[in-house]
Design a protein that fits this description.
The complex is a heterotrimer of chains A (about 290), B (about 260) and C (about 325). Chain A has about 290 residues and is mainly α. Chain A has one domain. Chain A contains 11 helices and 2 strands; from the N terminus they run ααααββααααααα. In chain A, a hairpin with a 2-residue loop joins strand 1 and strand 2 (about 135). The longest helix of chain A has 29 residues, at about 1-30. Chain A starts with a helix and ends in a 14-residue tail after the last helix. Chain B folds into 2 domains: about 1-80 and about 175-260, 3-Layer(aba) Sandwich (Rossmann fold); about 95-170, no CATH class. Chain B has a 6-stranded mixed beta sheet, with helices on both faces. Chain B has a 4-stranded antiparallel beta sheet with strand order 2-1-4-5, covered by helices on one side. In chain B, strand 4 (about 60-65) and strand 5 (about 65) form a beta hairpin. In chain B, helix 3 (about 95-105) packs parallel to helix 6. Chain C has a single domain, classed as Orthogonal Bundle (ABC transporter involved in vitamin B12 uptake, BtuC), CATH 1.10.3470. Classes of the chains: A mainly alpha (about 290), B alpha/beta (about 260), C mainly alpha (about 325).
Chain lengths: ~290, ~260, ~325
């Protein structure tokens, strides 16, 4: 029973981790909570849904294209709504982000309506497998596999490419990186692109997993993923992965323990607890405020 | 006579870094004491320790005999210590006058309920007293003609003076000035020196951190020198000027050997 | 009877306009409360609607279970919300900026989930609220409350208390160094904001006559934030204007009702980029009035400064 829930939790948590990565990267670089990130995840799910149902694409191709769509969307959002505000107060940028979020979810509501949509049943063959005492579906394996693959790819980009080095430099010190000749604008756009693409993948996976895609799925998932990012230590990429998985497992175990009606509160209880006990999270670094 | 402020064997560590190391410091009633030292010697950290922004890892800080180690900054302000900041910390979007009125916060009592009774004569009298105090402080730093200007629109020198006026409105016994002359031209520095002396004459003890040696030598009664968080010398200005340890700290070992 | 007289007076107004009028009043109460927390004190709260729900459910339950007189009920609802504000604010107001915003949002969501699971709030079905126990018609109650809250906010802004709150918004470390107990003041601001939200919630519950925890979610909080930001953070006339505009706009713009939230979202982005201080931020009403009357506005003299010279000699 426990092992079963653990696997369910890891599958769910991997999707949180995919979204949390976007929050944590953006926050690491420009200290902005990208409130619209959850909506990007939602748009990713819808993009894949359209590609699969209307254009009859395979789910894998649809997922890749959805990632491209969201990558562009992320870059555009940054350019339109955040870049002009880079020198304004953080409050202004945060409010602008909330505006983008509201805009996108209402836009999707107008286009697709309020009902949850589902992927066709044959989009991915679901087979149940036994591993010891637990049952694993091929879908869960897909989710865990794709998430792991994407995160490995991200690790590679961040640590073994030139743009990755620029990202790390910018997150250490924005101004110095700019002075050292890093094209900060490019780095920021690239960060939004990466984060948005990962969120889109998360959206597609969740859409298939729960077979439900709706205009308001972004808000709650986004908030939970943000909680995961904070849990892992905001700004830390391994932290976001760990935080996502931990959050997913805790949530699934909480539901299994009979608190299903409080499911959505679990993430926030963790969030608030982390903020109060150790705001730097599990893997975050301590920041000394300078006077 | 009991010193106004004493620091006894005060240390503070941030992780592995020892920013202030076993510091003994005494500020005597009525004097102008200058704290000097190379960049990163821990001078501003000392200010942050005295005003409660940092807490010492060990040692005691006493103000008028009372241990203030674990007091919050606002409690320390209420006891009569106020300061200016090295990087200007004004209330930028508020008018000059209001900046100083906020400095006079400790001189009033009304809280939330007092606010709701703001029309009562007793509350109006309190507000008037605070406004008088604020005007007095602004006149002292010659900013009384700019009361309605937003703080952010003042020139750099005016902003520095406004910080002093705001700190004076706390009615401090001890005033801490963190690099007050930074970025000023010689004329402004001279005026600032006169201002600080005027403040001293009014009975306020002053602890000042400053890099400009001419300024420090001309102004202070005593000087304490910090290097790597520890005090390496203390004494009258002329003693400090010829102290080999000080010269070494500022200019490096080789130079002092040649002297 | 005076109640009867007032009732007749209210009945003279067309029901449709009366409803809009009351909605505006409630929106103003909500906006003024959030303005104190976010606009004046600078603490971004994304959970203002949660305090409204506390007030709404407290008010509804007090009327249903105890049949409490409405004016007492209103105060109890406000106090209950303020209490929650203190309980929630105490741990989270240490957090700064974005972290605080997220924590308020987190608490609001937790609260919503709890209300959706309690028997006394009738779980997800919501509560039908009976008529309040008062001879005075509700619209008059609403607008009396508006006037009282407005007066309180004006008094706060012009006081030592209000200055301390603004100081916290501008520079928390400097405020603390000037002797402002920032923690205490932030909690007080939070509690007062929650109190007014509680008043608004209680009035709303009795006026709409049906409440559901889902009515007070994140989008409601964003709605209120919108009003404050549109009017200009920290500006009382701005909050009143913002609340009025955003409450009446959907009535004028019926044809675009479907796009309402989309427009609001775009509006937030637009405002932040082109007019971050809102419509009335940085605008002095006093100067405008002087200009309209053709008087040259002299240097600003708060009323408490006028007679100082004589007193000082």
């Amino acid at each position: 029973m426990f092992w079963q829930q653990l696997i369910n939790g890891i599958a769910l948590g991997s999707t949180y981790a995919l979204i949390a990565l976007g929050y944590t990267m953006v926050y690491g670089i420009i200290q902005l909570i990208n409130f619209a990130h959850g909506e990007i995840y939602m748009v990713g799910a819808f993009a894949a849904l359209v590609l699969v149902t209307v254009f009859k694409m395979s789910i894998f191709l649809a997922m890749v294209l959805a990632m491209v769509v969201c990558l562009l969307l992320g870059v555009i959002i940054e350019f339109v709504a955040y870049r002009p505000l880079r020198r304004s107060s953080r409050l202004s940028a945060l409010i602008s982000a909330i505006g983008v979020s509201t805009f996108l979810s209402t836009l999707v509501l107008l286009i697709f309506g309020a009902d949850a949509k589902g992927f066709p049943d044959d989009v991915f063959p679901v087979v149940q497998m036994r591993i010891g005492a637990a049952e694993v579906s091929s879908l869960q394996l897909l989710i865990i596999g794709v998430s792991a693959l994407l995160m490995l790819g991200l690790e590679f980009i961040v640590h073994h490419t030139k743009i990755g080095k620029a990202m790390r430099a910018t997150s250490q010190d924005y101004t110095t990186a700019a002075l050292m000749g890093v094209n900060v604008n490019l780095v920021i756009s690239f960060t939004f692109a990466l984060g948005s693409a990962l969120a889109a993948a998360g959206g597609v996976l969740v859409g298939i997993y729960f077979n439900a895609v709706s205009f308001n799925m972004g808000l709650m998932a986004g908030l939970k993923a943000f909680a995961a990012a904070v849990l892992g230590g905001i700004g830390s990429i391994p932290g976001a992965m760990l935080g996502g998985v931990v959050l997913g497992v805790v949530e699934v175990l909480g539901v299994a323990a009979g608190y299903s009606s409080y499911k959505d509160a679990i993430a926030f209880a963790i969030l608030v607890a982390v903020l109060m006990i150790k705001p730097t999270g599990l893997l975050g670094q301590k920041i000394q405020k300078k006077v | 006579m009991m010193p106004l402020l004493t620091m006894e064997r005060v240390s503070v560590r941030f992780g592995g870094l020892v920013a202030v190391n076993q510091l003994d410091l005494e500020v005597r009633q009525g004097e102008i004491l200058a704290l000097i030292g190379p960049n990163g010697a821990g001078k501003s950290t000392v200010f942050n320790l005295i005003t409660g922004i940092y807490r010492p890892t060990e040692g005691t800080i006493r103000f008028r005999g009372e241990i203030i180690n674990d007091k919050h900054p606002h409690e320390i302000a209420a006891r009569g210590i106020s300061r200016t900041f090295q990087t200007i910390h004004l209330f930028n979007e508020l008018p000059v006058f209001e900046n100083v009125l906020i400095g006079a916060h400790t001189q009033g009592k009304s809280g939330f309920l007092g606010a709701l009774g703001g029309f009562l004569p007793v509350k109006r009298r309190e507000e008037r007293a605070l406004a008088d105090l604020a005007r007095e402080c602004l006149a002292l730093v010659q900013l009384d003609c700019k009361v309605d200007e937003l703080a952010k629109n003042l020139s750099y020198g005016e902003q520095r003076r406004l910080e002093i006026a705001r700190a004076l409105a706390v009615r401090p016994r001890l005033l801490l000035l963190d690099e007050p002359a930074a970025g000023m031209n010689p004329q402004e520095k001279k005026e600032l020196m006169d201002l600080i002396r005027k403040i001293q004459v009014s009975g306020i003890t002053i602890l000042v951190v400053e890099h400009d040696m001419k300024f420090v030598m001309g102004l202070s009664d005593r000087i304490a020198v910090l290097d790597y968080g520890a005090k390496i010398a203390e004494g009258l200005p002329e003693e400090i000027r010829s102290n080999p340890a000080v010269i070494e700290a500022y200019l490096g070992k080789g130079v002092s050997g040649q002297c | 009877m005076i109640g009867e007289y007032l009732e007749n007076l209210v009945n003279l107004v067309d029901a449709y306009y009366l409803q809009i009028f009351v909605n505006i009043g409630i929106a103003i109460i909500m906006a003024l409360g959030l303005n104190l927390v976010t606009g004046v004190t600078g603490q971004l709260s994304l959970g203002h609607a949660a305090f409204m729900s506390i007030g709404a459910f407290t008010g509804a339950i007090l009327t249903i279970k105890l049949g409490m007189p409405f004016s007492l009920n209103l105060i109890c609802s406000g106090l209950m919300a303020a209490l929650c504000g203190v309980v929630i604010g105490f741990p989270i107001l240490r957090l700064s900026g974005d972290y605080l915003a997220i924590a308020t949002l987190g608490f609001a969501e937790i609260l919503k989930v709890i209300l959706l699971n309690l028997d006394i709030t009738n779980r997800a079905l919501g509560l039908s609220v009976p008529l309040p126990h008062t001879p005075i018609p509700l619209p008059i109650y609403v607008w009396l409350t508006v006037l009282l809250v407005l007066a309180a906010m004006v008094l706060i802004q012009n006081s030592r208390f209000g200055r301390a709150l603004r100081a916290i918004r501008e520079d928390e470390i400097a405020a603390e160094t000037m002797g402002v107990n920032t923690t205490l003041y932030k909690i007080q601001a939070f509690a007062i904001g929650a109190f007014t939200a509680g008043l608004g919630g209680c009035l709303y519950a009795h006026f709409i006559a049906y409440i559901n925890p889902s009515d007070f979610g994140f989008s409601k909080s964003v709605d209120i934030l919108n009003m404050v930001v549109l009017g200009g953070l920290g500006s009382i006339p701005g909050s009143v204007l913002g609340a009025t505009l955003l409450t009446t706009a959907p009535e004028f713009l019926r044809f675009m009702e479907r796009y309402r939230m989309m427009v609001y979202g775009a509006l937030l982005v637009f405002l932040m980029i082109f007019r971050p201080n809102g419509l009335l931020g940085g605008v002095s009403i006093r100067k405008l009035v002087c200009k309209a009357l053709g008087i040259k506005p002299g240097p600003r003299k708060p009323w408490h400064r006028i007679s100082t010279r004589k007193a000082g000699g």
